[in-house]
Amino acid sequence: MSASICVLGSSSRGNATAISFDDSGKFILVDAGLTPRGVRTALVAASATARFHTLRAIFLTHLDRDHWSPSWARQLQRAPVPVIVRRAHAELALASGVPAECLRPMDAAFALGKTADVRLVKVPHDEIGSTAFRFDSENAHIGHATDLGSVSDELLEAFADLDMLSIESNYDEEMQRNSPRPAFLKQRIMGGRGHLSNVQSVEAVRALTANGSVRHLVLLHLSQDCNCPTLVREFFHAQLPAIKASLTISRPYEPTPILCVRRSEPAIA
Protein backbone atom coordinates (compact mmCIF):
# COMPACT_ATOMS: atom_id res chain seq x y z
CA MET A 1 0.00 0.00 0.00
CA SER A 2 1.01 3.62 -0.44
CA ALA A 3 0.01 7.05 0.74
CA SER A 4 -0.86 9.70 -1.81
CA ILE A 5 -1.34 13.43 -2.03
CA CYS A 6 -3.01 15.61 -4.66
CA VAL A 7 -3.21 19.38 -4.41
CA LEU A 8 -6.61 20.03 -5.97
CA GLY A 9 -5.93 23.76 -6.26
CA SER A 10 -3.77 26.30 -4.46
CA SER A 11 -3.92 30.08 -4.74
CA SER A 12 -5.58 33.11 -3.20
CA ARG A 13 -8.73 31.95 -5.04
CA GLY A 14 -8.94 28.65 -3.17
CA ASN A 15 -6.86 25.93 -1.50
CA ALA A 16 -7.60 22.25 -1.00
CA THR A 17 -5.36 19.19 -0.78
CA ALA A 18 -6.55 15.58 -0.78
CA ILE A 19 -4.51 13.03 1.18
CA SER A 20 -5.08 9.27 1.23
CA PHE A 21 -3.10 7.21 3.69
CA ASP A 22 -3.68 3.85 1.99
CA ASP A 23 -5.26 2.34 -1.13
CA SER A 24 -8.82 2.27 0.23
CA GLY A 25 -9.96 5.40 -1.62
CA LYS A 26 -10.81 7.20 1.64
CA PHE A 27 -9.24 10.60 1.95
CA ILE A 28 -9.01 13.76 4.02
CA LEU A 29 -8.94 17.36 2.87
CA VAL A 30 -6.44 19.86 4.17
CA ASP A 31 -8.34 23.11 3.68
CA ALA A 32 -11.66 23.48 1.89
CA GLY A 33 -11.21 26.70 -0.03
CA LEU A 34 -12.62 25.07 -3.15
CA THR A 35 -16.37 24.49 -3.20
CA PRO A 36 -17.68 20.94 -2.81
CA ARG A 37 -18.36 20.91 -6.56
CA GLY A 38 -14.83 22.16 -7.19
CA VAL A 39 -13.41 19.32 -5.10
CA ARG A 40 -15.53 16.76 -6.96
CA THR A 41 -14.40 18.12 -10.31
CA ALA A 42 -10.73 18.20 -9.32
CA LEU A 43 -10.79 14.62 -8.03
CA VAL A 44 -12.20 13.45 -11.36
CA ALA A 45 -9.69 15.56 -13.32
CA ALA A 46 -6.85 14.01 -11.32
CA SER A 47 -8.18 10.49 -11.98
CA ALA A 48 -8.12 9.93 -8.25
CA THR A 49 -9.35 6.67 -6.77
CA ALA A 50 -10.85 8.81 -4.01
CA ARG A 51 -14.44 9.85 -4.62
CA PHE A 52 -16.28 12.68 -2.94
CA HIS A 53 -18.42 10.37 -0.80
CA THR A 54 -15.28 8.79 0.72
CA LEU A 55 -14.22 12.05 2.40
CA ARG A 56 -13.59 11.27 6.06
CA ALA A 57 -12.42 14.58 7.59
CA ILE A 58 -11.47 18.18 6.84
CA PHE A 59 -8.44 19.83 8.43
CA LEU A 60 -8.41 23.64 8.31
CA THR A 61 -5.17 25.56 8.52
CA HIS A 62 -7.23 28.70 9.25
CA LEU A 63 -10.50 30.34 8.25
CA ASP A 64 -9.52 32.79 5.51
CA ARG A 65 -11.94 32.62 2.59
CA ASP A 66 -9.41 30.90 0.33
CA HIS A 67 -9.07 28.06 2.86
CA TRP A 68 -12.70 27.65 3.92
CA SER A 69 -15.53 28.13 1.45
CA PRO A 70 -18.89 28.84 3.17
CA SER A 71 -20.53 26.58 0.57
CA TRP A 72 -19.31 23.64 2.68
CA ALA A 73 -21.76 24.50 5.46
CA ARG A 74 -24.77 23.06 3.61
CA GLN A 75 -22.78 20.06 2.37
CA LEU A 76 -21.70 19.20 5.92
CA GLN A 77 -25.25 19.50 7.20
CA ARG A 78 -26.29 16.88 4.63
CA ALA A 79 -23.24 14.63 5.03
CA PRO A 80 -21.33 15.50 8.21
CA VAL A 81 -17.64 14.74 8.64
CA PRO A 82 -15.30 16.01 11.36
CA VAL A 83 -13.74 19.44 10.77
CA ILE A 84 -10.50 19.75 12.72
CA VAL A 85 -9.18 23.17 13.75
CA ARG A 86 -6.89 24.49 16.44
CA ARG A 87 -8.85 25.68 19.48
CA ALA A 88 -7.88 29.29 18.77
CA HIS A 89 -9.86 29.03 15.52
CA ALA A 90 -12.98 27.33 16.93
CA GLU A 91 -15.08 30.44 17.53
CA LEU A 92 -14.28 31.83 14.10
CA ALA A 93 -15.02 28.45 12.52
CA LEU A 94 -18.53 28.46 13.98
CA ALA A 95 -19.06 32.05 12.86
CA SER A 96 -17.87 31.09 9.38
CA GLY A 97 -20.46 28.34 9.03
CA VAL A 98 -18.76 25.17 10.23
CA PRO A 99 -21.63 23.17 11.78
CA ALA A 100 -21.20 22.76 15.53
CA GLU A 101 -21.80 19.01 15.31
CA CYS A 102 -18.84 18.69 12.91
CA LEU A 103 -16.38 20.96 14.68
CA ARG A 104 -13.46 19.25 16.46
CA PRO A 105 -11.19 21.81 18.19
CA MET A 106 -7.77 20.31 18.91
CA ASP A 107 -4.43 21.41 20.27
CA ALA A 108 -2.71 18.19 21.32
CA ALA A 109 -1.64 15.42 18.98
CA PHE A 110 -4.32 12.81 18.34
CA ALA A 111 -5.04 9.65 16.37
CA LEU A 112 -7.26 9.73 13.28
CA GLY A 113 -8.77 6.33 13.98
CA LYS A 114 -6.27 3.64 13.05
CA THR A 115 -5.23 5.54 9.95
CA ALA A 116 -2.74 8.18 11.10
CA ASP A 117 -1.38 10.11 14.04
CA VAL A 118 -1.83 13.87 13.69
CA ARG A 119 0.25 16.70 15.11
CA LEU A 120 -0.84 20.36 14.94
CA VAL A 121 1.74 23.15 14.92
CA LYS A 122 0.85 26.82 15.33
CA VAL A 123 2.60 28.98 12.74
CA PRO A 124 2.56 32.79 12.48
CA HIS A 125 -0.08 34.28 10.19
CA ASP A 126 -1.99 37.47 10.90
CA GLU A 127 -3.49 37.81 14.39
CA ILE A 128 -4.30 34.24 15.48
CA GLY A 129 -1.97 32.26 13.29
CA SER A 130 -2.35 29.35 10.93
CA THR A 131 -1.89 25.62 11.56
CA ALA A 132 0.63 23.27 10.02
CA PHE A 133 -0.18 19.56 10.11
CA ARG A 134 1.97 16.46 10.34
CA PHE A 135 0.38 13.10 9.51
CA ASP A 136 2.17 9.87 10.41
CA SER A 137 0.71 6.71 8.90
CA GLU A 138 2.06 3.22 8.36
CA ASN A 139 2.94 4.16 4.78
CA ALA A 140 4.29 7.70 5.00
CA HIS A 141 5.08 10.75 7.09
CA ILE A 142 3.47 13.83 5.53
CA GLY A 143 3.85 17.52 6.43
CA HIS A 144 1.67 20.39 5.18
CA ALA A 145 2.40 24.06 5.92
CA THR A 146 0.92 27.08 4.20
CA ASP A 147 0.15 30.69 5.07
CA LEU A 148 3.02 31.19 7.48
CA GLY A 149 5.10 34.30 7.77
CA SER A 150 8.23 32.56 9.06
CA VAL A 151 9.56 29.11 9.89
CA SER A 152 10.05 28.37 13.57
CA ASP A 153 12.30 25.84 15.25
CA GLU A 154 9.11 24.13 16.45
CA LEU A 155 7.99 23.58 12.86
CA LEU A 156 11.40 22.31 11.79
CA GLU A 157 11.37 19.86 14.68
CA ALA A 158 7.81 18.75 13.98
CA PHE A 159 8.57 18.18 10.29
CA ALA A 160 11.72 16.09 10.78
CA ASP A 161 11.99 12.83 8.82
CA LEU A 162 9.13 13.44 6.37
CA ASP A 163 8.45 11.42 3.24
CA MET A 164 6.22 14.11 1.69
CA LEU A 165 6.49 17.84 2.28
CA SER A 166 4.01 20.44 1.06
CA ILE A 167 5.08 23.99 1.88
CA GLU A 168 4.23 27.49 0.79
CA SER A 169 6.44 29.45 -1.61
CA ASN A 170 4.22 32.49 -1.98
CA TYR A 171 6.14 35.39 -3.47
CA ASP A 172 9.29 36.64 -5.13
CA GLU A 173 10.56 39.50 -3.00
CA GLU A 174 11.57 41.74 -5.92
CA MET A 175 8.22 41.25 -7.64
CA GLN A 176 6.46 41.97 -4.36
CA ARG A 177 8.38 45.19 -3.70
CA ASN A 178 7.85 46.41 -7.27
CA SER A 179 4.16 45.50 -7.41
CA PRO A 180 1.40 48.14 -7.36
CA ARG A 181 0.04 46.69 -4.12
CA PRO A 182 -0.40 49.20 -1.28
CA ALA A 183 2.40 49.48 1.26
CA PHE A 184 0.31 48.11 4.12
CA LEU A 185 -0.38 44.90 2.16
CA LYS A 186 3.27 44.43 1.27
CA GLN A 187 4.15 44.87 4.94
CA ARG A 188 1.50 42.37 5.99
CA ILE A 189 2.79 39.77 3.54
CA MET A 190 6.52 40.27 4.17
CA GLY A 191 6.43 41.25 7.84
CA GLY A 192 6.91 37.81 9.40
CA ARG A 193 3.21 37.04 9.93
CA GLY A 194 2.07 36.84 6.33
CA HIS A 195 3.55 34.46 3.78
CA LEU A 196 6.84 32.78 2.91
CA SER A 197 8.99 34.17 0.12
CA ASN A 198 10.74 31.87 -2.33
CA VAL A 199 14.01 32.45 -0.45
CA GLN A 200 12.45 31.58 2.92
CA SER A 201 10.84 28.50 1.42
CA VAL A 202 14.14 27.29 -0.04
CA GLU A 203 15.82 27.75 3.33
CA ALA A 204 13.11 25.71 5.06
CA VAL A 205 13.23 22.97 2.44
CA ARG A 206 17.02 22.84 2.65
CA ALA A 207 16.79 22.24 6.40
CA LEU A 208 13.98 19.70 6.11
CA THR A 209 15.57 17.65 3.33
CA ALA A 210 19.06 17.57 4.81
CA ASN A 211 18.71 13.98 5.98
CA GLY A 212 17.49 12.77 2.59
CA SER A 213 14.15 11.38 3.75
CA VAL A 214 11.77 13.47 1.60
CA ARG A 215 10.48 11.67 -1.49
CA HIS A 216 8.14 14.38 -2.79
CA LEU A 217 8.21 18.16 -2.39
CA VAL A 218 5.12 20.21 -3.28
CA LEU A 219 5.16 24.00 -3.37
CA LEU A 220 1.90 25.69 -2.39
CA HIS A 221 0.07 29.01 -2.70
CA LEU A 222 2.16 30.81 -5.32
CA SER A 223 1.01 34.39 -5.68
CA GLN A 224 -0.53 35.02 -9.07
CA ASP A 225 0.64 38.65 -8.98
CA CYS A 226 4.04 38.38 -7.32
CA ASN A 227 5.40 35.01 -8.33
CA CYS A 228 5.78 32.76 -11.37
CA PRO A 229 5.94 28.94 -11.59
CA THR A 230 8.85 29.08 -14.04
CA LEU A 231 10.80 31.46 -11.80
CA VAL A 232 10.13 29.27 -8.76
CA ARG A 233 11.13 26.08 -10.52
CA GLU A 234 14.39 27.57 -11.80
CA PHE A 235 15.19 29.06 -8.41
CA PHE A 236 14.62 25.81 -6.52
CA HIS A 237 16.56 23.80 -9.12
CA ALA A 238 19.50 26.18 -8.82
CA GLN A 239 19.46 26.28 -5.03
CA LEU A 240 18.59 22.64 -4.39
CA PRO A 241 19.63 20.53 -7.40
CA ALA A 242 18.86 17.27 -5.61
CA ILE A 243 15.13 17.99 -5.56
CA LYS A 244 14.68 18.39 -9.35
CA ALA A 245 13.02 15.03 -9.93
CA SER A 246 10.86 15.31 -6.81
CA LEU A 247 9.54 18.88 -7.15
CA THR A 248 5.87 19.59 -7.91
CA ILE A 249 4.46 23.11 -8.15
CA SER A 250 0.78 23.53 -7.41
CA ARG A 251 -1.53 25.51 -9.68
CA PRO A 252 -4.56 27.70 -8.98
CA TYR A 253 -7.15 25.97 -11.13
CA GLU A 254 -5.93 22.44 -11.80
CA PRO A 255 -4.87 19.50 -9.64
CA THR A 256 -1.32 18.29 -9.39
CA PRO A 257 -0.51 14.74 -10.42
CA ILE A 258 -1.28 12.20 -7.71
CA LEU A 259 1.96 11.71 -5.80
CA CYS A 260 2.32 8.28 -4.21
CA VAL A 261 4.96 7.22 -1.72
CA ARG A 262 5.95 4.11 0.16
CA ARG A 263 8.49 4.36 2.91
CA SER A 264 10.82 1.94 1.10
CA GLU A 265 11.15 4.21 -1.96
CA PRO A 266 14.44 6.04 -2.58
CA ALA A 267 14.49 9.52 -1.11
CA ILE A 268 15.98 12.83 -2.23
CA ALA A 269 19.75 12.43 -1.94
Q: What CATH architecture do you see?
A: 4-Layer Sandwich
Q: In which range does the helix fraction lie?
A: 10-25%
Q: Report the sheet with the most strands, covering strand number, pairing sense and barrel closure.
A: 7 strands, mixed
CATH class identity: Alpha Beta
User: What does the average pLDDT come to?
Assistant: 94
Radius of gyration: 17 Å
Shape: globular
Low-confidence stretches: none
Structural domain count: 1
With strands numbered from the N-terminus, the spatial order across the biggest sheet is: 6-5-4-3-2-1-14
So, the CATH homologous superfamily? Ribonuclease Z/Hydroxyacylglutathione hydrolase-like
Q: How large is the count of helical segments? A: 8
Structural class: alpha/beta
Q: What is the CA–CA distance across the termini?
A: 23 Å
* N-to-C order of helices and strands: EEEHEHEHEEEEEHEHHHEHEE
In the CATH hierarchy, the third-tier topology is known as: Metallo-beta-lactamase, Chain A
